[in-house]
Amino acid sequence: MSHQADINTFLHPFLSSKGLRLSIYNMEAYLNNVRADLSLEDEDLKEMTAKFKEELELGLEKHNQTLRALPTFVYRLPKGTEKGKYLTVDLGGTNLRVGLIELLGSGKFAIEKASFIIPETLKTGSGEKIFEFIAENVKEFLARPEVQAELPLKLGFTFSFPIEQESLSHGRIIGWSKEIECPDVIGKDAVELLQKALHRLGLDIAVEALVNDTVGTLLAQIYRDSRTKMSVILGTGSNAAYVESCANIRKLAIEADHTVINIEWGSFGEDSPSNLPTRWFDRLLDSESRNSGHQKFEKMISGMYLGEIFRLILAEGVKRKVLTRCEDSKSTSKLDLIHGIGTEEMSEFHQAYIEKDYIKCSEIGEGFGIECENGDGLLQFIAELCELISLRSCKLCAVGITAIYRHVHNFDDEEEVFLVAVDGSLYQKYPNYAKILQDMVCSINSGPEANSCKIELVMAEDLSSVGAAAAIAAQKE
Length: 477
Ligand code: BGC
Known about the structure:
Layout: H1 24-38, H2 42-61, E1 70-71, E2 83-91, E3 95-105, E4 108-117, H3 128-142, H4 145-148, E5 155-159, E6 163-167, E7 170-173, H5 190-200, E8 207-211, H6 213-224, E9 228-234, E10 238-245, E11 258-262, H7 280-287, H8 296-301, H9 303-319, H10 343-354, H11 358-368, H12 376-408, E12 418-423, H13 425-429, H14 433-445, E13 455-459, H15 464-476
Parallel strand pairs: 2-5, 5-8, 9-12, 12-13
Antiparallel strand pairs: 1-11, 2-3, 3-4, 6-7, 9-10, 10-11
Bound molecules: beta-D-glucopyranose.
């Protein structure tokens, strides 16, 4: 592993005494540090992939390991022929989606849905309120005449947080992630909580499947294409699921050939710091987080956190007088606030830079609170920072995909393409992310012959609810 460079040792002795614009030299010196901190060499990736595979296999062998590798009780995978109409609820870290899904057979479906932003006020305090919020929005959705006409409907519940399942339709909340902190419902059954909240509003709806968003995405993409073996979410949070042979799940006796495992990969390396090389900004980010000490891999990858890593590095640059604050910037700017800069804004800057729209870059940079005028070198510095942070995220994600691929490879048909369904705002929207991830995965996994990469990533946009519906339908077939 490359060594963490101590940021303090890189201060150039000729720091500008005025504390204003510093020479390109100092910017370059700081950038060199950041480059070293964010770089992951091929050797590092190789080592991490082996460690990831080890942690995954340990998770399949015993309960409560770093990678939980949670069995999902999905024993019948969709065939693509299933039909029927289902009500769906999808609770993510940012949005709640309620939908009416019609599975049409031949891998096709139709969706009618409503989306709601989860209010910040619900993200801390009593978790019961989150379930009340869901129930209220389900009630509103059910009032639509076209939905009324389809009642009664069975409900598929996509829940994008760790759950220890007891059956396909029951599971206890292990903990929250993505900066939600509602401790009172931890250990409780997510389906019962939802069912009770629905009953309180007089809604008598049976929840028939509970799936993590990775599992929903995987099942939906299997419904569309049976060659799909894995799913990855790269959104507010990050995680992966895959189809596992039950014989490999030694911690549980299952009488079925295959099932789906929700890895909960966000916690990779959590208990063995040497498996995951964190840097000063990762540690700072973790210490200020609501789930400090947890989800360290996710915190280096996902959309909830990349903007914050970016902010921490920029703010440190200001502190070190490598960067200058806007003169008209108020005493506190986005740079001073935890999560003050979102990945969306970082992505917007990066996109503008790629498009050579330097005026827009300056405007966005000044919005962060950084003096960007007359700053060609400065814009380049910020753009490179965006690139380094997003590239590290891509590399770590490629490590996870490769480790899973190598784990399942021995029971997979070697000739067949290995489809990975990928969804999430980071993957969908961050400039070049999808392409770089595909290239990276292939460069790690190609054999000596040209075009020998079997792993193909497919965009599975907003499919997690479809998978919850397919989970119910597949059990009936
Ligand atoms: C959660 C996972 C989820 C992922 C993607 C993580 O924070 O722990 O359960 O699948 O985010 O939404």
